[in-house]
Design goal:
Order of helices and strands: HEEEHEEEHEHEEHEEEH
CATH architecture: 3-Layer(aba) Sandwich
CATH topology: Rossmann fold
Structural class: alpha/beta
CATH class: Alpha Beta
Number of strands: 12
Distance between the termini: 22 Å
CATH superfamily: Alpha/Beta hydrolase fold, catalytic domain
Largest sheet: 10 strands, mixed
Strand content: 15-25%
Length: about 325
Amino acid sequence: MFGTTRSRRLSGALATTAVAVALAAAGTGTALATPPPAPPGGGPGPAAPSAGCGTDAPHLPGISAQYEVPQTEPNEPETKRRYQLFVPEDYDPARPLPVVLAFHGRTSNGAEVENYTGLSKLPAIVVYLEGAESAKTKAQSWQGAPYSEAGVDDVAYTATVLDQVEAATCADTNRVYATGKSNGGGFTEILACRMSDRIAAIAPVAAAFYRTGEPECAPGRPVPVIEFHGTADTTVPYAGGGAEKPTPPIMDWVNGWVARNQCAPEPATKRIEPDITVSNWSNCADGADVEHVVVDNGGHTWPGNRAYSGGGYATQTIRATDVMWEFLSHRTLGGPA
C-alpha cells in the first residue's frame, strides 16, 4: 500500500507499550505526576528545524497566548480564526521542539482542553485550535461531523496554523502530533488521512469517528495511532452509535488502522490496571504501531483529567496525556527510532 518495509524494532510485548512504560517510570501503578521527558536532544532521530529556529518566542514562554490566521472559503469573504499557542518556559530558539496540535470537542474550546488535559506540561509547543462556529447553534465543531458547519475547510485551517507556528517558533517538523477529544478526536483521523506528510502520529480520546468524516482514508504513509475509549461512553458508544449516532464500533475503527498500517493481525493484550486494558498491534509497516487503551466503565472523559472533561466515570489510574506522550514522543515522520 505504501511501498514501505516493515519494522520489527518495537516488539508486541506489553512491556513496551506506552501505558506500561509510563507506569513503570512512576515506579507504581498510578499515573505520573508529570509527563515523562522526551529522550535527550528532544526526541528520537534527527530533528528537522522549522523556519522559526533562531528567533525568540513570539510571546513570553511558559504561558499561552491567542493568535489569528486568515480563513478563506470559496465564494465567502475572508475571515479570521483564532488559536491558542503555548510555548514552554525553557524554550530555546536553537533547540527544535515537537508540536502537539490539540482539538476540542463540540461546544468546547481550546482553553477548556488546556485546562483538563495538562498538555501544556509536556516538553513541547502546544497549539489549541478553535473549531468553526455554527451559524445555527453558535457551537464550535470540526468538519466531518453531521453537525459541523457546511463548507468549512478545517484541514486547510490547521495547515495554515501549523505554517504560522513553524515560522514563529523553533519547531521540529518531523515531530508534529495531533490529539483531541470527541469531535476533535475524530478530526485527528481526518488529519492523519489527508496530512500524513506533516502529522507524525495521532492520539484521539473518546473520539467521534463519524462515518461521514473520511470514508476513503488513504494516507501517504503509515500513521502510528494510540486511541483511548471508555466502554460506558454514552456520547460516543463503544459498540457503535447506530442510526442516530453514525459512529462505528470502536474496535471496527481500530481494526481499520491495523489493516491500513499493515500490522500483524493479533495484538498483545494485557490488563494494566483494574480498569485499564491495553492492546498493541506491532510489526507494522514503518513501525507504525496501533495501540488501543480501554477504560472499563469509562465515560465520555479524558483519562486522568485535571478538571471536568465530560460525563461518566473518569479513571485516575492513568493519565491519557502521560501515556500518549510516551507513545508520541518516540514517533517521527520517518518512523520510530
